[in-house]
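can u pls check wat happens w/ nickel (II) ion
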Amino acid sequence: MLKIAYHGHSCVQITQGDQSLIIDPFLTGNPMAAVQPEEVRVQHVLLTHAHTDHIQDAAAIAKNNDATVIAIHELATYMSWQGVQTRDMNIGGRMDLGFSQLQMVPAFHSSAIIVPERKQIIYAGMPAGFLIHWDGRTILHAGDTNLYSDMKLIGERNDIDVAFLPMGDLYTMGPEDAVEAAKWLKAKQVVPVHYNTFDLIKQDGSKFEALLSSHGLSGRALKPGDSIEL
Ligand code: NI
Ligand code: MN
């Protein structure tokens, strides 16, 4: 059985026994965060892209746990310069973690590290999402993205049990596009992410659940700290 915990914003942790991985840890400075970075015990830290609201605690968690950061080539290289172990990959590629297999999928967004003091923008490769195959289950973390039609292909080629889809609008797709994405991905269950953390991305989780069910889809707006078992 897999335990999938939602830590707020886009941060998801998947655990089975002693094996655990966390995606997009943004806990420090996240008003909705349900755990402290020091409490996280994982072997892997997966990053969808380089924005602060996704990588904030990645280096600290990796160092605390002697864990590996997994990201697209450019972001993995940047993270390796922060003194953490990394494994790089790229869109379409698969990676075997032993207990779980990953595939990196596209996301349409941007990805850079911004250094305001130097007015510098460090390009960090393409943004991405992750398909995670573990214990016969398939979980999609879509990263930050709009609705794009290749989601149909991902849905046809994978039997997705749970899809974590952004729906905060403004920086990613909003609720209506996320429902369309859920349809195209044929996800058995949808969990909305990337909303309500800040006023700019305010959305109604229960309205989204209702919108999904009006389309014959099933979803759950998890609160930070909630988890599901698969
Ligand atoms: Ni972003
Ligand atoms: Mn974001």
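The chain has six helices and 15 strands.
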